[in-house]
Amino acid sequence: MKWGKLWRGSLVTALLFCFLSAIAEQQNASSIKMQSPQAASPVAEAQSALTQKDSKKAIAILSSHLQVHPKDIPARLALGQAYVIAGQNEQAAAELQTVLKNAPQNVSALTLVGQVYLHEGQLDKAEAMLSRAVKASGGAPRIRMQWAFVLARLHRFKEARSALSGLTAPSGPEESVEFYRLKASVASGLGDASTAASEMEKALALQQQDERLTMATAMAELKSENWRRSAELAEPLYSRTHDVQAGLLLLDAQLGMHGDFHRTLESLRTTQLQPMEELALRQNLAEVLISHGEFSAAIEELRRAVELDPNRGDLVYNLALAQFKAGRLDDSLASAEKCKALGDGADLEDLLGDIQEIRGESLAAARSYQAAVTLAPNEERYRLSLAVEFVRHKNYDAARVVLKQAEELWPKSWRIQLALGMVEYFAGSDEDASRILVHAAELAPEPETALRYVGMIQMGHASPPAPAVIAQLCGYSDRHPNDGKLQYYCGGLLLRRDYDYGDKTHVGEILRRLHVAANLLTKDAAPHCQIGRVYRWVERWQQAREESEVCVRLDPNSADGHYRLAQIYQHLGEAERSQEEMALYKAASQRMADQNAHRDETMKTFLYTIQTDAPNSR
Questions:
Q1: Own/partner pairs for 128-133, CB < 8 Å, 24+ apart?
Q2: If 335 and its partner were Cys, which of 241, 320, 492, 504 is the partner (CB 3.0–4.6 Å)?
Q3: By the 8 A CB rule, do 23 and 181 touch?
Q4: Is the pTM of the predicted complex or chain greater than 0.85?
Q5: Residues 6+ positions from 447 with CB-CB distance below 8 Å
């Protein structure tokens, strides 16, 4: 169990539905238009019958005519249209397909049969027909809009965007509104919330009194995190209609802009609803509050939801989770145990482990994490939780066993490899740690986290860095020139490699990378310390002095920095300043944390990272 889908996400889904359904309604209306008839023809008689809303008569006229003249394409096309109006889509499709056998490029038939398939929910067939219609018509704007609509329904948003490219809004205001809404739906599907909101604003400008359109525009602005504009649209709508959806939208916007939301929240809480409607509202309120980190406020909503349906385990779980996030550990434990009485689950055991760990009950926490693994043996995150628990208490052998078992199940998991590598590092095996972390970086879609740990480990390692490590780090930094930390690690490791061998041929590259890092990491002493080391190595003493002075100014506790600066002052004949730096060096050496303390600090960062990046993390 986990938090339900956030209400804001539901809004976006509803927004897309509104965009598309409005277009569909307009398209269905357009599909009933008959072809221009010839005077006194059976088509003219049929159209006259349809004007009188007598589709049965129209069908009879055209069917009789076609028995005598089966190759009369206009009449057969008109019969297909009459069937559409009568709601007989199967017969309509059959007639239109007959037209297409004889006239495969007939734009009207292609368009209408595409609309029939759309009405029947056969989106792939509809798209194929409308694609043909677009080509046959030479890219007629209305047909391109219909095609784009179907592509959007198929979630083929890039193709829908291409279909709409270059089109201008139709002349009629209603058609223009639907055009902008369609463009907004496509932008939303592509993740371009800002453009979606802009297109909805264009639509709203044409129909400012339309409440549904106002609501949809407020939703789009919410998605684009334009909180203030969303609130401006939602507030008068909620004040006028007291519609709870408008109220939820307003609450979401007020929370987003860090405004005073309490009046809106209280108004929604006191809305008189039937029990099941109130239950849905309380859940939605909790989800909105939780999405903005208001866990304490969400507790009241979830508590009331549990009162309304006390046998819903997911509600009790969400209450326990909100209490945990709010730091109410005793209440959270009580709710979790109540939830367990209703039915156990891996998510619940994982949450119990988190609660017990923070309460200092490490043995109980380990049992709960193990129970989660037992209940869901094929889910990666529960094994990670168990391994992390062992790491937290420095039981590295047990963590290694858990992760090795996980590695057999998920050999391509970068998270498992990252955790394994860090366990080796915490256990003191730097070389094994680096090798495994390089592999984690190869597997990860975003390798930066693993590479940063590799760089950190190798910069503090006694032996020269492995070529594979340098290749990974420097290759990534070349592809991401604005990542200052990776530029630093690349330059620093190249320096360590070349310094040990006395090879000064790459000094220019090393300095370039370290200077880039220093410019990007303006408050970090490390790049300046390494630059000072390079200049001292190549005997550029004045530059070595300047960089080393920056190094110790930014990091007064850098024992290496003070020692190096003392040597530089000694070489420059500044004996008094050299002695001062040696005194600072000795003091910094006494304060310097040992390697175990450094590993403990790294462990805190790792535990946060691995739990934050875990799949389906709460």
A1: 133/107
A2: 320
A3: yes
A4: no
A5: 414, 440, 441, 472, 476
CB 368 within 8 A of CB 389: no
State pLDDT tens for residues 252-288: 999 999 999 999 999 999 999 999 999 999 999 999 9
Which amino acid is it at 351? L
Q: What is the CA radius of gyration of the chain?
A: 34
Residue labelled with tokens 């490590």: 469
Q: Residues 229-245: what's their mean pLDDT?
A: 96
Establish how many alpha carbons lie within 13 A of residue 572's alpha carbon, considering only the half-sphere containing its beta carbon.
20
Residue with tokens 């309460």: 359
Q: 554-579: buried (b, 16+ CB within 10 Å) or exposed (e) per residue?
A: bbeebbbbbbbbbbbbeeeeeeebbe
| Six token digits for residue 436 | 């495994």
Q: Which of 113, 118, 163, 115 is nearest to 139 (CA)?
A: 163
Q: DSSP string of 347-389?
A: HHHHHHHHHHHHTT-HHHHHHHHHHHHHH-TT-HHHHHHHHHH
* Of the options 1.10.275.10, 1.10.3810.10, 1.20.1540.10, 1.25.40.10, the CATH number for the domain spanning 444-618: 1.25.40.10
Q: Measured in whole angstroms, how far is the alpha carbon of residue 130 from the centre of its chain?
A: 32
Q: Which two tokens stand for residue 143?
A: 């047909």
Cβ contacts of 438 within 8 Å, gap of 6 or more = 450, 454, 466, 468, 469, 472
Q: What is the largest CA-CA distance in the chain?
A: 117
User: What are the pLDDT digits (tens) for 194-212?
Assistant: 999 999 999 999 999 999 9
Query: Whose CA is closest to 368, among 321, 415, 341, 336?
Result: 336
Q: Which residues neighbour 558 within 8 Å (Cβ) at sequence distance 6 or greater?
A: 525, 529, 551, 552, 588
Q: Alpha-carbon distance 379 to 415, whole Å?
A: 13
CA proximity to 111, closest of 101, 124, 126: 126
Are 255 and 289 spatial neighbours (Cβ–Cβ below 8 Å)? yes
Question: pLDDT of 308-365, one tens digit each?
Answer: 999 999 999 999 999 999 999 999 999 999 999 999 999 999 999 999 999 999 999 9
Nearest to 549 by CA among 567, 534, 562, 535: 562
Helix/strand number for the chain, H first, E second: 34, 0
Alpha helices by DSSP H, 103-210: 107-119, 123-136, 141-153, 157-164, 173-189, 193-206
Q: Residues 6 or more apart from 266 whose CB is under 8 A from it?
A: none
The distance from CA 357 to its chain's CA centroid, rounded to whole angstroms, is 29
Sign of CA dihedral 142, 146, 151, 152: positive
Instruction: Give start-end residues of each CATH 1.25.40.10 domain in the chain.
Output: 7-223, 444-618
What is the CATH number assigned to the segment(s) 7-223? 1.25.40.10
Alpha helices in 502-594, H assignment, sequence order: 507-520, 526-537, 541-554, 559-571, 575-591
Round to whole Å and give the CA distance between 447 and 533.
29
Alpha-carbon distances of 538 from 31, 358, 568, rounded to whole Å:
80, 52, 12
Judge whether 551 and 571 are in contact, CB under 8 Å. no
How many Å apart are CA 116 and CA 111, to the nearest integer?
9
